[in-house]
């Protein structure tokens, strides 16, 4: 993962004075007792890793091959759950809904956040106030309160329709129609672009101004400068933001749950993968089936992530691998 | 970006824009700043309008909630707040108390556990360190779905359902790797000379951690605390799974139940409670926004 | 200067993670399973009445008040007993009960309803109550046999003692219906009359009021339609009625929706889920199917709008096979995991037979099933008019000897949910009626049983 390290950048003097971490390790021998101390400090996290992550993952893999309802012992069913998935119309619907959501909201978030970051990257006064105002929705986007607000804003008699009414367009409920309900959730996700924007902003501010000066001397215009300096320098962050926004989008739950009252309706149009997994696992107590769903998602996301990493070699520019 | 912003500077170095391209409507740097601010403000206004509308509507009589698009209530009333607060089987004081307890414990647990792990990763050397660090980064990308069901089964076997333990204990075990990562980034750049000095003074690893690292890491701990607060406060799926008794509900659950029970008829009280539910987040954000924003820039946390 | 963690180093880390996961996963799994009561025990319910029991029910404000009052009366009558109480709204109640069942700690006195009963009975979570009836621990002699039988599982055993009988009714905005000249449907009206009545009324209604809420997605209408046509809802744990019947049912509703007699599908999708806040209670539609015992709260909502409109309930339409109305009984079950069965049995007995308790509760959750208490309440001159109407419609429906439906396990989670969704697919133009019927039959039959 390529992650900006602005703290490190700020401390670049001391960084230059001392060799990098891995370099130093080779020089220094491990002190007596350091290994024990290391594991002691690490022990809460290790316990969590073992009991709350790896253990459950293994259990989930096992359960995905069973029929299990919490009440009676799991019954081994082989690949039945997986076979059933691919003929389950609701599962197929949930995959479609989730992919649509990801395919629209990830580019949406990236484009809007990059555009606003570019506009803000001028070093003028009030920058921090702007930044804060744009960032605020990111903190609220996953709350029940905002989901409720969204229901109102896009409802039959909501603010959006009230505005449209005044200019003579009459729409039904955006939330109540399967053709539009998902798009209100996509808008909600794009509304929370602030966090991504701040990462871009941090990256923009670290591009050395000499590059632009040199380009300007060579006669490169603003568009040209954007394409040949800004964009390449930002590719590690674009890569990082694609990764994060996508992973987050796959995990969205609260807005869809609140807006559809847990049904994923109308007509399965907001049936997020997570929502369907919740329904199978915790409303119907089909825990084996839900585990199979989870593992299909893990494998699919793993393949997607691997492809993204593989593609990175062709378009991501790494400053330290020149 | 509009044409106005970049066209004039097409062939000029950034600091000395020459204004010979007279076709563009805005010529002066001041004029361009005005246009830019106007655009930025318009976008902010559209983005924040729903929030302001919600706050305004919460002070409006219930029957005016739907009919008004403006923000300032003309007939100011607090009825929605008094009515909403006591609606339902338990009042919102109960939900706020529950949320506060869970959030408070989560913040403490997460800061302590992440700090411990981050110190080990940033400063100590031990076998398999790189493997473990890579695993930690890997868990950042792991969808939580895969642990959801088995964790639930495990907590149910432990008879932890309808206690706050399933929500709080994972925080004490630093399960959110983002926060460890953020702190590792921070501790790595703290000067090592102080560690060495403390070691010469006879401090062990714990002493260095407690006397040097912790005091120097307070800003990072503050960032982690704030994010943990906000995430836990907003969390809905966790309480939905583990807290089924209405007297244990968090604010998020109380709010969701409110909307199920009343629908559109009590929209005023509903919006009032929704406003209250995000008030702590907005409040903390206003106080600590510098810390938060820099925290994101540092780690990519969102 | 900007620095990044090298891509290569990260890739190496990611692949190690993946390898670690695969290796651990390859070691085979352990599972966390729980053995709960296997339900083979029986208990005749006699014994000492003392100690603690947990009592759980669903309901909102007013219901909670009267329920608590009855539990207080029981504690007064049995000073050695303390009753701890848990209540929740309808939807949350069942989710919570699932959780409690999985942990083997269902409340000793658990309120159940015929529609969900077999989700629990079929997993051997409930004690059969017949031995307690035989031993005299629970006296059910005042409950009519037809009503008592609604508490039986597919194996014929009694798993729930019904204390309140609700029914679905057609809730009509009487004021609007009379203004249009269509009036309230007469006794014994049938489905044909009902659909024509709606269409006729629509012509004279105000523009923003529809004659009916979209009805094709309401299982309650379907049940009445199926019964009235002499078919069975369920047979051998599967759907018991022919698919053509459902095609007819949905075709009728689609014609009404397309011709604007009902409101639109997206309005229907936005309707609040609580009955007292439904569109008919808000005056947004003229008629809809609603639980008969919601007449009073719905009228309260109506009164809150100051339109002066009056709501009334009538039985659902009849058909070639007679009345389509069925009773939905709520009652009490005792779980196999209960450690104080004798006290739980005493509580249930008290609830069914105590005069004062029945008066306090006053049929808050459907008409009281104890025939003596029912008569007392109807004879009580202080009974509010709407409540009297509710009880009278109940008597009217009981007089039609309604059939008892045994709902297979998974009814609510599978059948109802799939039914509503299948109709949504039609109403939003996603599927043809034929296609939706086929898909619904496949989905529901796979999930039932």
Short recap of the structure:
The complex is a heterotrimer of chains A (322), B (302) and C (449). In chain B, 69% of the residues lie in helices and 0% in strands. Chain B is mainly alpha-helical and 302 residues long.
CATH architecture of the largest domain in chain B: Orthogonal Bundle
Secondary-structure element pattern of chain B, one letter each: HHHHHHHHHHHHHH
State the total count of DSSP E strands of chain B. 0
The CATH architecture of the largest domain in chain C is: 3-Layer(aba) Sandwich
Description:
The complex is a heterotrimer of chains A (322), B (302) and C (449). With 322 residues, chain A is an all-alpha fold. Chain A folds into 2 domains: 22-63; 82-321, MetI-like (MetI-like fold, Orthogonal Bundle), CATH 1.10.3720. Chain A contains 16 helices and 2 strands. Chain A has helices spanning 6-10, 12-17, 21-27, 34-63, 80-85, 89-120, 127-140, 144-153, 159-166, 181-191, 194-204, 209-217, 222-250, 254-259, 273-283, 287-315, and strands at residues 66-67, 75-76. Chain A is globular. Chain B has 302 residues and is an all-alpha fold. In chain B, helix 4 (92-123) packs parallel to helix 7 (165-172) and helix 13 packs antiparallel against helix 14. Chain B is globular, with a radius of gyration of 25 Å. The model of chain B is unreliable at 1-24 (pLDDT under 50). In chain C, helix 2 (61-77) packs antiparallel against helix 15, helix 10 crosses helix 19 (433-447) and helix 18 runs antiparallel to helix 19. With 449 residues, chain C is of the alpha+beta class. The N and C termini of chain C lie far apart (66 Å). Classes of the chains: A mainly alpha (322), B mainly alpha (302), C alpha+beta (449). Chains in contact: A-B, A-C, B-C. The interface between A and B is large, with 121 and 112 residues.
